[in-house]
Each structure stands twice: as C-alpha cells, then as structure tokens.
Amino acid sequence: MGSSTCGEGEERSVKRGRILRWDGPTPPLIPHLNYAHSMIKRMATHGHTVALVESETGKQWTFSELCELVPRVSGGLAECGVGLGDRVLCLTPIHIDYTLVLLAIIYRGATCVPINPTLNAGELAHVLRVSEARWAVVHEACVSLAEAAFTYLPSTTLRKMWVMGESPTPDKPSLHDLFSHDPIPPLTTTDGLVPDKMAAIMPFSSGTTGPSKGVLFSHRTLHVPNMTHLFLEQLQPEKAKMTKEIYSRALLLLPVAHSYGHIMLVNNLFVGTTTVCLTKFTPTAFLETIQKYQITVCPLVPHLVKFLSDTPLLKEYNITSVKAVMSGAAPIDTDTINNFEKKTGIPLTRAYGMTETYNAVTRTRPPPDDNPTTVGKVTPYTEVKVSNI
C-alpha cells in the first residue's frame, strides 16, 4: 500500500497484472507527525462528547477526558523506562481503557503490540519473542495467561506489567495508577521520531501457514484512514453532515487487536462518534445494546450479518436507530446481502483489506450505486495489483 499520485481513472499495466488506483483526484500528502499527538488534537475538537461507553456497566470516557489522560499515562510509561522505539504488549479484549493505552504508547514514541487474549501461553510467548516487548498492559482476566507466557522467556524479559481493572497483587500496579502522573509532551521529529519509518503499532497476522507474524505500521500509515476521511469529506461536502449523523453512535464488538476492529475504533475517535463497546457477544446482549444505546452504525462480520437477517429475536427489539451496517473480515455472498437489506431495510456496505494492508484497500459505495457482486473500488492512498496466477 502506498500513496497515490495518479489522476482520475488511471490504470497502469505491469508484467503479469494490472495496477489499479483510486479513480479520483490526487489526495493530499500524509502528515509527517506523531500519530497520537495528531489524534489528541483532533479529539479535543469533540470536547465533552462521550467518546467511549462500556455497554455492560455504563462506564464512559469523554473526548476531553481522553485528551487529558493520554499525556499522563504516557508520562507514567516514561518514568518506568518506556522510550523511543520500545515495544509494549497490550493484551486485552474490547475495553474502553484500550484507547488510553494505545495512544499513550504511541505518544511516547514506542510501539503498541495489541494482542487478542484467545492465544494460549505458548502462542503468546512466540509473540513476545518476535515483538521483543519488555513492558505489558494486561486486562485483569488475562494476567495468568501473560504470566504463563513470560515463563517461556528469560526472567529479565518483563520489566513492568500494569493491569486493566483490579490489580491482583501489589507488584502489578493498576493502569489507573498512571492517571495521576504529570503530563508530558509527545515525542516528535526533534526527539528522533521518524514518522514514516518508526512503528506505531505491531499487530500480528495469522497468515496462511506457520506461527503468527508481526506487521509493523508506521505513524505515517496510521494517518491514512484519517486523511482519507478528510479528503472524501472535501470531495462530497453535501454528504458530510449526513455521514456525521449516521456515525453518531457506533457499536464495537470486533477485537481491537485485529485491523478491522482497530480501524473502526480509531476512525470513530477521529470523527467524533460515540463508541459503545460490547465485551462479550450474546444474541440478547447484542440486540439489547443496539436498542438501549440507539446505535446508528454497526461494523460486523458476515456471520453476524446473517444472524441479524435470520434471528427470530429481531422482532422483540427496536433497531430502527441503525442507519448503516458494514461487513468485513471475510467474504459475504450476494444472497446474504440481499436477504439482509430486504429484511432489515438497512444498507450494507462492504470493504476488503487484511492485517498487512492496515486500511481497507477497496470499499463498496452506498446504495443505489452499490454492486453486490464486487468488493468495491480502490480507496485513496492505495494501489492494487490484479494478477492471474
């Protein structure tokens, strides 16, 4: 994936394939800045709007609270030795404190290694070896898993562990202990940060064979979805207000350690969407959350799209607040798309991407311009090679 410099509709033939690019005007240059610092400045414009809600408890963070706490948490990390280029494991299911951890690590110039806690101890130990993470922020339900994984490595590997939630032992402080630290400024290019070379996050991809593999994404790459959003708003200003209304309240039940869930979360933060986090999926919890919080947009995977189409529970809940549903992470067939839209009356958009591309590389257009037999058109800042192998 790279920056596009092509004009409208350009297509370039290459040996054994074609290169396809965004079929519109040239998008603006990507900023050469600390990603987390840019995000904080953007989130500050959303003020006291609620940014994140934990659906089960109602606990929440506003955008202004996040903007205040990220530099404080980053200061706590710095005091414990986390610096430029260091790797910090973040082992957690969906949790509203994940945003604080993610941005605080990147703000400090370090690399966040987000991992889904479905791994076993041996698999997590592999991640730790590959990533060379020396610090860890771990959800309270995952502490024993993290401890077991670190036993596979030299005893000097782990320098510090913080716990999201209740800290089980005195030697493992709570993440909330970092909230009281003095705020620090972000690491910038004057401090040695190279935004287009240094990794901001390191998710792991299962690939097709062998153990999972780490994928390094620079600060520059993380800016791409944000710049795409701003660029498309400028191209279609008449749709910007409508889009903001559609994206007012989003449901997030996708793993934040995977690109799809991560992108949805950070896009919501950038746009000013209130994100309602559902930690554990059950059919009733899913539908109750949509109804209770008047969710307007749902990023889903195909089997959940099919569930919404087929479940008899649907008639027991009011989901008329939902204005858009997205499907990704796996193929979805035309019959499922048509059945969903017919039964719910909700437009379904689709995107194609993978961990290694970070952002979606293609995306369908909203009805009536959608073609359900395709994966859509190439997104800005992206080029796609089509080959017959």
From TrEMBL:
GO terms for molecular function: CoA-ligase activity. The keyword Amino-acid biosynthesis does not apply. GO terms for cellular component: peroxisome. PROSITE patterns: AMP_BINDING. It holds the Pfam family AMP-binding. It is found in: Peroxisome. Residues 43-387 form the AMP-dependent synthetase/ligase domain. InterPro entries: AMP-binding_CS, AMP-dep_synth/lig_dom, ANL_N_sf. It comes from the Eukaryota. The keyword Ligase applies. Its main location: other. Belongs to the ATP-dependent AMP-binding enzyme family. This is AMP-dependent synthetase/ligase domain-containing protein. Keywords: Ligase, Peroxisome.
